[in-house]
Amino acid sequence: MKSTSALSLIAGAVALAAVTGFAALNEPSGGNTAEAKTAARLPVERTSLLCPAPGLSDLSETAYTAFTPSGTSGGSATSGTAELLSSAKDGEATADDKSDDKDKKGTSKKDKADKPVVSLKEPGKPATGEASGADSPALVGTATGRFAPGWTAQQTTTIEAGDGRGLLGISCTTPDTDFWFPAASTAKSREDYVHLTNPDDTAAVADIELYGPDGSLKSDVGEGITVPAGSGVRVLISTLTSKAADDVTVHVTTRTGRVGAAVRAADDETGSDWLTASAEPAGTVVLPGIPADATSVRLVAFAPGDDDADLGLKLLGKTGAVTPAGHEELHVKSHMTAGMDLKDITRGEAGSLMLVPTEKGKATPVVAALRVVRGKGAKQEVAFIPATGPVGARATVADNRSKGSVLSLTAPGAAATVKVTASAGSGGGTPVSKTYKIAAGTTTAVTPPVPTGLKGTYALTVETRSGGPVHAARTLTETVDGIQMFTVQTLPDDRGTVEVPAAQQDLSVLDD
User: Fold this and answer.
1) 325-357 pLDDT tens trace
2) Which residues of 360-375 are buried (b: 16+ CB within 10 A; e: fewer)?
3) 283-302: b or e for each residue (b if 16 or more CB lie within 10 Å)?
4) DSSP characters for 90-151?
5) In Å, how far are 149, 286, 287, 492 from 389, measured between CA atoms?
6) pTM for the full predicted model
């Protein structure tokens, strides 16, 4: 009996690529050109997303929005599901690698995963959910079939007062085995937690390494952290080392399994927000979407390889690229974290930062992130912008409101044209689209289109139509007691499709 066809193997590989967080199945180098021409891009059939536990404040209110763009179906055009469920456990990792699986009242959390917090009903229309308080767990989510291609979820938490106040936003992450987080800190004024979430049915084991301005911050406590199946744990990074450093790079890897990882950073004066992972190390990196009214911008970079990196700074503004006076170059020593205070670099004009090698032909890979502050005195608020990949074919960000959203689009190389679509609202509304042209070496910051008759929140989808590459970020602002709380999410390619090479041989003759 014939049981395995080449097509079924390809479909399985596509699903595996989505589940494991890889964007594409690449052809082997030196492969047959004729075979390469027959390769196809197919929709993914399964996608995983992980949302970290929202926070540590009883005053927190968290909104979840999930969305899948319409028009690209994985598997059957009519089947599939997309749900975000509470993790079975969530707690703080301790020195003996155990995590607390009870809430503050001593109640077991094992029954909190019974009902989905968010369940998507149809592509093209966002679905929402909410949670409140410090005991809200991490969420583990899976989308299959028609809901998988481009599935995204946004977690937005508002803490109006007290420690860690702010608008904390994060696009829920795909599971992986390797993450870099520049711009963390072990300073006394900071309280930074690494959140690890395991989507799988078996435990994952993770290591956390810290690198300061003088190199590795040695610690045995960050090794071999167990993240139970379907659970989340958080680790206060200042407990992993005795050294206080303003600029720290966090490196998360797994020995077994895979996790979603994010850093929740809180400062005594500037509030809190999520720091998401930098794009993979590269010789040239782009950090899009610095707000026009930023009062303080700090750049943090790290070179994970054996070579030092000499980087030139370019600010991509409304009319072109300039080298910031007094901040022309940054030297990053191998395995050491480098920081530079860029102050109010944008000077009233929204922009993006690009780091390029100063020496032609020598591109040392780096990771980088920006710590951005708006406001002054008691009204300061903070957000983070990691280096991010381009929009590619399509990128999406959820939880946009009728007011308070700004979309930044930057074309660091060639000029580009993009199509921006505002989806239907979660409670009603008609989608609308608008096309934008971005000149080479510039950043265009716009108030994005809003669905006609909007009710609720909506998603923005950005598609590259010509030129590029284009990098993008969305800033969401909410005014609370006169304070402009804000958060920034970058928009890398949604990896809704993967390239599947032609089968090299017919495997349909295999028997059971």
Assistant:
1) 899 999 999 999 999 999 999 989 999 999 999
2) eeeebbbbbbbbbbbb
3) ebbbbbbbbbebebbbbbbb
4) EEEB-TTS-B--B-TTS-B-TTTTSSEEEE--STTS-EEEEEESTTPPPEEEEEEGGG-TT-
5) 18, 8, 9, 5
6) 0.88
